[in-house]
Each structure stands twice: as C-alpha cells, then as structure tokens.
Specification:
Helix content: 55-70%
Radius of gyration: 24 Å
Distance between the termini: 45 Å
Strand content: 5-15%
Structural class: alpha/beta
Oligomer: single chain
Number of helices: 13
C-alpha cells in the first residue's frame, strides 16, 4: 500500500500535484507539525518520498472528515510512522510495532484506531484480535512476558478512559466482575464498554472479585445481570464450587464469558454462556433485557 521511496523523489510542486494540497499549505504543515521528512539534493532542494505522499493523503482524508489539521497531525504521529487505513492495516501495524518494542507507537496506533474507526469497530476488529494474537504468541513462547505487558498496559490505559464515561441505563443494570482469582480483565473491560454503549448501566468491579461480594452488590443495585469473566480455565472449578453454594438475588441472570468458560459449565450452573465474539455477546445479553 505504501511503496518504497522513489530514488529521485518529488519536489514540492510534484507533491502538491499528486496530493491535491497546495504547495504553500504543504510548507506550513511541514514547518508547524513536522509531518514530512524530505531528503535533500546536492543543491539543498527538498525531495519528498512516497511515504510523504501517503502521509499527506491520509491527512487530507481526515480533514475531509472534519478534523482540524492540528488534531489530524497529532493522530498521524511522528514521521517514522506510516498511516494505517483499514482495520487489518491498523492491526498489522500495531503488531509490527510490538515486534520492535515500540511502546509509544503501539499506543499511538490504538489511539488512531479509536479516532478513525470508532469505539465499536476498534473493540471488535482491532483490540479483540490483537489480544487473541498476543495471547497465542505468549503461549507459543514467541512473545515475552514484557511484550504481553506492553500491549496490555497500552490497551488498559485507553479502555480506562472509556470506562470512566458515565452513561447507559435503559436496558437495566449489569454488574461485571472477574471470577475469584482471575487477574485478566481486559476482555471484561471491553465488554463493559460495549454494554454501556448498548444502553446498560454498568457497574464494573474488575479483577479477582469475591463471588459473594459481587452477588451482594448486584442485589443492592437491583442488577438484571451479573457477568463473570473466566479467562483462565483453571479458575472455572473454583467458580463452579462457589456458585453452587451461592444464592443469587431474585431476578438476577448470571452470565459466564471468557476463554476459560464453557457452555457445559454455564449449563451446570444455570447460567447463560456468551461466546468470544463481542458483538454476539452484546446481542445475547440484549435479549435478557427484552
């Protein structure tokens, strides 16, 4: 999508012709936002590469969507970062940055995805497959713990901002918690954001929540559902034991999700099981409120 640099390069007039952006505007963008990285001829004249063309075209598209140039330039980031255009491209470039240990670029590209694709598409098409890929690589030993933490913290920081936004409530109250002992909460955070956007009032409890505490709070806030996340299969047995002896409040639906949950476990406990796809899980829980 982004061809290599042309040996001779383009002068400012050729860049303006290729991109449809006036030469004077390009000069201002270069000086004010440092978005281009021209080389110099022996005589000191600027020559622009195909990467510069791609960056100007990307900025032009953002301006057409209503962004201000300062906002668009901030999203675009430094000159070494080629712009992503499709969900697949965003994901591929995040993984490439991860492979090179570029923590700042990983965060920048996640911010780009949220700004350009929207929350729903970024959750379903970028972050869900990103975390699955990272988990698979970690299990295969092709990704270090440090690499996994790099991605997790970048994602956690951005999801935390979204969780802080109040809203929802037309479908009822949903209490969301990780099973006792379960520390992996990013999937639960994404579910909380998706449910809030679908009209639920979400009470988010996070990692390693004692079951009875979650049930008591669900009763206190008259919740319609309690969502329990089980990312690691070894947490399922202890959760099953705890749920068998627990007494959910009247009218509360218990929902199990996460890679460590199963239909069999949910069936044994009289709970609803939702699969790994975020859109499908939201649709299934919407039926609870119907």
């Amino acid at each position: 999508m982004f061809p290599g640099t042309m040996p001779a390069g383009l002068n400012i007039a050729a860049l303006a012709h290729r991109t449809g952006v006036a030469a004077e505007t390009l000069r201002k963008w270069e000086q004010r936002y440092q978005i281009l990285q021209p080389s110099r001829t022996a005589g000191g004249q600027r020559r622009y590469s195909e990467r510069d063309v791609a960056r100007v075209e990307w900025l032009r598209e953002r301006l057409g969507e209503g962004y201000r140039i300062g906002e668009a330039a901030s999203l675009l980031g430094t000159v070494g970062v080629e712009p992503a255009r499709t969900p697949h491209d965003h994901l591929r470039r995040i993984l490439h940055a991860l492979g090179h240990g570029e923590a700042v670029e990983v965060g920048l590209r996640i911010d780009q995805a949220f700004a350009l694709l929207g929350v729903d598409a970024t959750l379903a098409e970028i972050l869900c497959p990103l975390l699955r890929t990272v988990g698979d690589r970690w299990q295969r030993g092709t990704l270090t713990i440090a690499g996994e933490h790099l991605v997790s913290e970048a994602v956690r920081a951005r999801l935390g901002h979204l969780l802080a936004d109040a809203g929802g409530g037309v479908r009822g109250v949903a209490v969301l918690a990780c099973a006792p002992g379960e520390q992996h909460e990013l999937g639960l955070m994404m579910a909380a954001i998706a449910l809030r956007r679908d009209g639920w009032k979400v009470v988010y409890l996070g990692a390693d929540t004692p079951l009875q505490d979650a049930l008591d709070l669900a009763g206190l806030v008259s919740a319609r559902l309690l969502g329990l996340s089980v990312a690691m299969a070894e947490r399922a047995a202890s959760l099953e034991t705890a749920l068998r002896t627990a007494k959910p409040p009247e009218g509360l639906s218990v929902v199990l999700g996460g890679a460590g949950a199963s239909r069999g476990l949910a069936r044994r406990l009289g709970a609803l099981h939702v699969g790994p796809e975020l859109d499908g899980a939201v649709a299934a829980l919407r039926a609870v409120a119907a």
